Amino acid sequence: MTLDNKAAGEQELDDAVFGLAVRKDILQRVVEWQRAKARAGTHKTKTRSEVSGTGKKPFKQKGSGNARQGTLRAPQHEGGGRAHGPVVRSHAYNLTKKVRALGLRHALSAKVAEGKLLLIDAAEVSQPKTAALVKSFAAMGLTKPLIIGGDVLNENFAKAARNIKGVDVLPTAGANVLDILRHKELVLTKEAALALQARLK
């Protein structure tokens, strides 16, 4: 199919990449891994060594009748540091390449099973006109598509598409499970389909 909603020949897809019985557990593992990697991990509280305050002992050790105290910056005091609070860290963890590739195959297969995969000849336009692209998407019945182009995106197409709400455009190398699943439709160029088959087969 072309962007003008006209037929542009046929493309055979490999069942080893696009025809698997979808396993939701694999998809969940890969999505959780992606979301963990994306977490900022910048949450932080001050410890007793970081809060502002005196280092002087509040009162003498014995004879006051009160529990012994060494500092007013301890967690039990108002304005003191937080005990065992969150620290800046990475939430990322490792996931084997085989599982990541398997997740991508199952995500592609899920879109095929739902009837939400569309192949187009090329994602290219001569001018970066958003209105024209909106009409093309409407003619093809696309509402919230993820469009995966070739190794290098057409600059005019990318500029025209970035102003449309719910539409994302990625190069082949950027294809990922989370983006594929969160969009209603998946649109692949012929170049992208062949590249993904070669990469995942």
Helices, by number, come to 7
Number of strands: 4
Helix content: 25-40%
Mean of residue pLDDT values: 93
Beta-strand fraction estimate: 5-15%
Q: Might you state the CATH topology name of the domain at 15-33 and 94-200? A: Ribosomal Protein L4, Chain: A
Radius of gyration: 27 Å
CATH superfamily of the domain at 15-33 and 94-200: Ribosomal protein L4/L1
Biggest sheet features:
4 strands, parallel
What is the CATH class name of the domain at 15-33 and 94-200? Alpha Beta
Shape: elongated
* Order of secondary-structure elements: HHHEHEHEHEH
Summarize the helices and strands and which ones pair or pack.
Elements: H1 15-18, H2 24-38, H3 97-114, E1 117-120, H4 130-140, E2 145-148, H5 155-161, E3 168-170, H6 177-182, E4 185-189, H7 190-200
Parallel strand pairs: 1-4, 2-3, 2-4
Can you walk me through this structure?
The chain has a domain at 15-33 and 94-200: Ribosomal protein L4/L1 (Ribosomal Protein L4, Chain: A, 3-Layer(aba) Sandwich), CATH 3.40.1370.10. 22% of the residues are buried. Helix content is 36%, strand content 8%. It has helices at residues 15-18, 24-38, 97-114, 130-140, 155-161, 177-182, 190-200; strands spanning 117-120, 145-148, 168-170, 185-189. With 201 residues, the chain is α/β, with parallel strands linked by helices.
